[in-house]
Amino acid sequence: MNNQIVIFGGTFDPIHHGHLISARAVAEHFGFEKITFMPTYQPPHKGEDYHPAASPEDRLQMIKLAIANEEIFDVSDLEITLAKRNYTYDTLLALHERFGTDKTIFWIIGIDMLEELPNWYNAQQVIELARLITVARPPFNKRISSILEKLRQYFSAEQVKRLEEGIISTPLIDISSTEIRSRISKGESIRYLTPDSVVDYILSKGLYR
Ligand code: ATP
Asked: Domains along the chain?
């Protein structure tokens, strides 16, 4: 187990129960002892002008609150301390540099991100450096076969087979960070969408208003 690193990367603006339930399902499915949430400083796939609504420090803090007392989860500030628009490819190289190339890196994504994979920087190398684990997410999970069809245009049959094997059946949780931000801005409750500690943090700091 010690030669594995399992990362769940994302903006986490904010973290919510969709992330947490999916991560726990991945841990159970593979028997992982640890999954590390790694917030991005700036999501590379959302364009130059996109900036997360909450600061990296707030997003990191909300993850810490959400996973407090949960042994199988931890958090890494690696991408945040890189403090630039870095790509998953760069992060994977940094992880190999830090922990050695004999470690197997598992990288968790939602099925919406799998569809975007051809647009990832150095996607070919990314899927050689890490084993992608894809979790279900509505409504994208209805289109798995068309997503795989699209991937066949960019990746070899062998690579697509591996990507397909990495798609695992997880609970369908229709929650997004966008929904949380939008509900806050409209003055609506976000209770039950994310842990109470995160709700309290958002409200006390006046985030997403
Ligand atoms: P936003 O609404 O701001 O785009 P998001 O809810 O998609 O945010 P991210 O932080 O961008 O959250 O997601 C990080 C990773 O978690 C991505 O790979 C995404 O596909 C996955 N993910 C997000 N929400 C869910 C969910 N409800 N179920 C499964 N996977 C999810």
From this structure: 4-174 (3.40.50.620)
pLDDT at 1: 55
Which of ligand 1's atoms lies nearest the C-alpha of 39? 10
> How many Å lie between the centroid of ligand 1 and the Cα of residue 128?
23
| Any ligand 1 atom below 6 A from CB of 137 | yes
Q: What is the pLDDT of residues 124-174, one digit of tens each?
A: 999 999 999 999 998 888 899 999 999 999 999 999 999 999 999 999 999
- Cα of 9 from ligand 1 centre, angstroms: 9
**87-91: Cβ within 8 A, 24+ apart:** 87/44, 87/120, 87/121, 87/122, 88/9, 88/44, 88/120, 88/121, 88/126, 88/130, 89/120, 89/121, 89/122, 89/125, 89/126, 89/129, 91/7, 91/9, 91/38
What is this structure's pTM?
A: 0.95
